[in-house]
Amino acid sequence: MQIYLSFLVVALYLAAVFIPFPQRIVGAGVSVLAWLLHAASLWLAVFADDALRIGFATMLSAALWVTVSVYLIENRNFSLDGLKFLLFPPAAGFSILPVFFPGAVIALTGKTAMFPWHVSIALLAYSTLTIAAFHAAIMSLQDKHLHKLRSRTLPSWLSAVIDKLPALLTMEKVLFRLISVGFVLLSLTVLSGIVFSEQVLGVAFKWDHKTILSLLSWLLFAILLVGRRWRGWRGKTVLNFTLSGFLTLLLAYVGSRFVLEVVLHRSLV
Hints:
Elements: H1 2-18, H2 24-46, E1 47-48, E2 51-54, H3 56-74, H4 84-95, H5 97-100, E3 104-107, H6 114-146, H7 148-151, H8 156-163, H9 168-200, H10 209-231, H11 236-263
Antiparallel strand pairs: 1-2, 2-3
Helix pairs in contact: 1-2, 1-4, 2-3, 3-4, 3-6, 3-11, 6-9, 6-11, 9-10, 10-11
């Protein structure tokens, strides 16, 4: 069931890309249907009886699902139609990854009641900051496009997509909304992780690479928000901190799971 559903999601995401802009209602309907079926596919991939199945593939798929969610919501307020050319192809690719890399089964029997909440908050934090990183990358391309001499290096189709985006100031406001929400969720992830670790292991932190990289990512986003509030940081500084914080978080969660599951054929649990 999950396999067929995942392939259908891929087909719908790719179909939505090629629906012309004048047929916006049809395109929106296909996009929403792909998003709904993506959610159903994720549910089947992650949730089982008294167990969770978590891996790098489900985390990436969840991140793109949340990204599409934000796109569908924000597209009602701003004209973001051009983003579908950059967003839907990777959403299609990542939505089918859990079929080939299902991840590790985590039994909930014997786990503290905090554990499912910790996993859920962590997934939301990672997904939200993934959106922020994607948004920052688009802003970087948009900034290059505004400089006429440098815009010649961009393909014509990409220039056409960027022309349909809102102004950079509007994009920056959306970016900091995403970063602020992601930072709160990441802070809750760290705090719930402390509680969970104390209840199960008897220690506040398990000092492994995942913990260290997660704290480093939290610190980078904290510095960024403080710099924005007190120093008025903008432009390349904001983009560099956003992408650095995201890449650090990517290595902490997705990177470690990819190495263990695919390279070493082991589980983190």
